[in-house]
Structures are given as C-alpha cells and as structure tokens.
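Q: Joint fold for the lines below.
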Amino acid sequence: MIYLELFWSFFQIGLFSIGGGYAAMPLIEQQVVDLHPWLTMAQFADIMTIAEMTPGPIAINSATFVGIQVAGFGGAIVATLGCVAPSCVIVLTLAYLYYHFRKLTVVQGILAGLRPAVIAMIASAGLSIVFMAFFGQRTLPADPGGIDVVAAAIFAACFFCLRKWKVNPIGVMAGAGAAGLILYSIF
Amino acid sequence: MSGNAQKYWKLFASTFELSACTFGGGFVIIPLMRKKFVDELHWVEEQEMLDLTAIAQSSPGAIAVNASILVGYHVAGRLGALLTVLGTVLPPLVIISLVSLCYTVIRDNAAVSMVMAGMLAGVGAVICDVVVTMCQGLLEKKRLLPLVMLAAVFVAVRFLNVSIVAVILVCGMIGAADMLRRRAPERSGGSDGEGGGRP
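A: Joint structure:
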C-alpha cells in the first residue's frame, strides 16, 4: 500500500527532524534513497536544489515532490500530511506544557544533547551534496582527479561570499545558477 | 461572529502569504512572522514570540510549520492552528506540484541542467556555511562533551550507516542525563540549556 508507506516514511521524517530545514535532509535521504527505491541520489540532489529555490520548508517541499513522483498528487498530499502530523501533535502538546510549566530541565537537556548530533548529521548530508556536485556521486571517489572544476570553483566562490559578506542564500543560489549556465557553456 | 470569521481569514491569509514568499526555510520565516504578528497585528507579545520561537525550533518538524501552529493556537485555539498549518503547507504543495509536473521535461534541457549543476554547488556551499556557523556556536560553549558527540555522530552516520532515529534517541538521553547531573549540585548555574538555536 504505497500511500501508507509514503505516509509512514514522511511521518518519521517529520517526527525525527529536529532543528529545522537542513536537519530533515539526512532523514529524507535515508528514507527516500536508502530504505525505499523512490529517488536516485541524483534526483535527491535535484529536489534539494529545487527545495532551496522555492519557498516553503524543505521537508514539505520534498514530501510533495517524492509523493508526486511515487503516487501522483494523492501521494503528495499523503506525504505532506505525514510530514506535518507529528508537528501538530507534539507542538500542541508542548504549547500546553509551556503554558503550564514554562521551564523543564529534562526537556532542555534533551535539546542540548541533540544540538551536536544535528550539526553532525547536517555536515554528513552536506558532504554528500558537495561530493554530488563535484564528482556526481555522494562519496569521495578513489581518484579525485575527475573533479568537476567548474562546480568546485562555484562552490568556493559561494562559500567565500557566504562567510565574508553574509550574502542571502537565495542570492547565492541565483548567482550559482547563473554562473553554472555561463561557465558550463564556455567550458 | 463576523469579527471571528475575519480573524480566522486573516490568520490563514497571513501565514499563506508568509509561506509563499519566504525562501530559505525556518530561520528566515521566524523574523517575518514576528514582524507580522507582533509589530503589525499585535496578536502576540514580544516575549511570548521568543518563547514560541524556542519551542518551534526545538520541536521536531519544519520550523515554519511549528511556529505557525503555535501562533495559530495562541491566537485562535485549535481551529486557528489548523488554519495556519493549511496556510503554511498549501503554497509549497502547489508550487512543487507544478515544478514536478514539468520536472522530467526541464531536467533534460541542457541549459536547465547547467543551471542546476551550478545551483547544486551553491546549495553545498550554503549547507557548509550553516554547518560552520553552528559549529562556532558550539565552540563558544567551551565544553568537551558536545564536540565529542558531534565527532562520534558524524562517524556513526557517515561511515557506519547508523540509523538517524537511533542517534537522536541516544543523544537525547545523553543530553538529559548530562543536564540533570550538572543541575543537581548547583541550581543556579549553567546557561547551556537555553533554547537559542543558531541559524
């Protein structure tokens, strides 16, 4: 039952992605590329790019995209519902607790423990994306000589702009796209 | 009654508009929500917005969705929360549906794939930037445990293919135990647990 599978996969993504947008990325990768044969790694990289270019949370964007690819518009709705359902239950519960207790040491401890884990997972998923851009595969190849020089140059320029001038990510994305069009046409 | 209906409509329309026009995820939409609901509509107080933000950031799921649930619930109860979730989810649902309809067509276009290849490198840079900024936040705390956890989780996820769900459960427990241990002797100290997540 594909609808149930979609719902359950994105329910887990919604349930376990703590820390927003990028934190959902490794979970989506695991669910959609590794555990289910729904997207290839190249398609996954595409949807991350599309999710970054379009408004809306990454998890919702990819739920819609994967849902449509796998089971049409109905699949998109089911996957999106699955993604949002845990939020609704947990956030409303926390809101209730917040209005009643305000400060919970155990909860704060859990969150503090999750922070480094979230960073590490984002770093790992980010590395997959970078290798995907450089080599067309998500791990470092045995022979790194086949690196896509244009992609590496664009990456370096973008990273520099982001660190040095705190450029808006959307501006970076637009610039990277334009640079890709121009540079790949020339080389 | 009509005043209520107007309030519900305004809630839905505000979140719809914010979601449709906000690129870049949760860390971008929260300041905009504050502008809308605190400064403009005066439905939420400044301090409450800070607390709601902390809850939204520390709960599972998309930050934008969480924040809109909280604001909707705060303003108009469960129906309010339902309306704001709809308002937040509908724009991406429609936009991505349209994109994926023509995805196969545009993906095979040479110019589009050049743009996509450039943008993929750009996304990689954006993610690396986010990671570096988050690591700086962690280093400022000057504690060994989070850094060890970071390294261990990276190895576990990247090289050992450990399930992310397992990682989250274990790290949550370690964090809770650590916090309880540190809070037990001195009740006053330790600002480590504040909810201020970094973009």
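Q: Anything notable?
A: Residues 188-199 of chain B have pLDDT under 50 and may be disordered. Chain B has three domains: 2-101, 108-140, 141-199.
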